[in-house]
Write a structure and sequence with these properties.
This protein has helices at about 5-10, 15-30, 40-55, 55-70, 105-110, 185-190, 250-260, and strands at about 75, 85, 85-90, 95-100, 110-120, 125-140, 145-150, 155-160, 170, 175-180, 190-195, 200-205, 215-220, 235-240. It is of the alpha+beta class. The strands form four sheets. It has a four-stranded mixed sheet. Strands 3-4-8-7 form a four-stranded mixed sheet. It has a four-stranded mixed sheet with strand order 9-10-14-13. About 20% of the residues are buried.
Length: about 260
């Protein structure tokens, strides 16, 4: 288990940058090796914690994936099973690799390790092809088309692609799902269990008549908003009304009597 940088600095996870800065300065004065040589290790821990939490990007990665996630923000060469990606060339001579992600991966966040080929100049000045493993931290809520690049490989970029899902369709930050219900439930109301993308279930009760264009909105059960912590889109349930294949004459007469001409 990785270190808790908030605990090291003695601040809450919701601490502001000013609170983090003040906590670091106070602890650094107490533990600086020039004043207290025995506190060199503690001073190093405090400095590392401040480095991470004072950087918005590193802090966001740490909040989502912990210290382990910080190890996957650059290049690595020790992945036994990296995913091979097919590059495409853009007009600006930047090679773009597509990263295919499931909807669950874009919901929870994940780390993708991609094997790429690159030309480098060796000591003799000659171009030499090399393979590298690039680890990309996919943050919760990222959308199809999100572009990722690294300062040390500016000629290479990665673009998020979204795999089709068997039960959900994404529209912005909202999720769309469809429920099939019989005609009698559409007319008389129904209770139904809905599977959510996070693996849990929600129970919905519908009392009014459901038409062909009816839909039900469950707030905050859509995709996470990547730029707003703890905020989510909605889950929109659309209904597919199943009509009976046939009716007896008695049933038809009863329906006419109940519903009218």
């Amino acid at each position: 288990m990785g270190r808790d940088f908030y605990k090291i600095l003695g601040v809450e996870r919701q601490a502001t940058q000013e609170e983090i800065r003040k906590a670091y300065k106070a602890l650094a004065r107490k533990t600086h090796p020039d004043k207290n040589p025995e506190s060199a290790k503690e001073f190093s821990e405090i400095t590392k914690a401040h480095e991470i939490l004072s950087d918005p990007n590193k802090r966001a990665t740490f909040d989502t994936f912990g210290e382990e996630g910080l190890q996957f923000t650059g290049l690595s060469s020790e992945d036994p099973q990296p995913e091979k990606v097919a590059p495409s060339q853009t007009s600006s001579s930047q090679v773009v690799h597509k990263i295919s992600c499931t909807l669950e991966e874009l919901y929870h966040g994940t780390v993708k390790k991609m094997k790429i080929k690159q030309q480098i100049v060796d000591v003799t000045g000659q171009p030499t092809p090399v393979e590298k493993i690039v680890s990309i931290v996919i943050k919760p809520g990222w959308k199809k088309g999100t572009k990722v690049s690294f300062p040390d490989t500016p000629n290479i970029a990665f673009v998020i692609d979204e795999k089709p899902h068997p039960h959900f369709v994404r529209e912005g930050d909202n999720l769309i799902t469809k429920i099939s219900i019989p005609l009698v439930s559409a007319l008389c109301g129904t209770k139904s269990k809905v599977l959510l993308l996070n693996g849990t279930e929600a129970f919905v009760e519908i009392k009014e008549v459901i038409g062909n264009n009816s839909q039900l909105v469950i707030p905050n059960q859509g995709m996470p908003l990547s730029n707003q912590e703890s905020q989510y889109g909605d889950l929109i349930i659309r209904f597919d009304i199943q009509f009976p294949n046939e009716l007896t004459q008695t049933q038809k007469d009863q329906l006419e009597q109940i519903l009218g001409q």
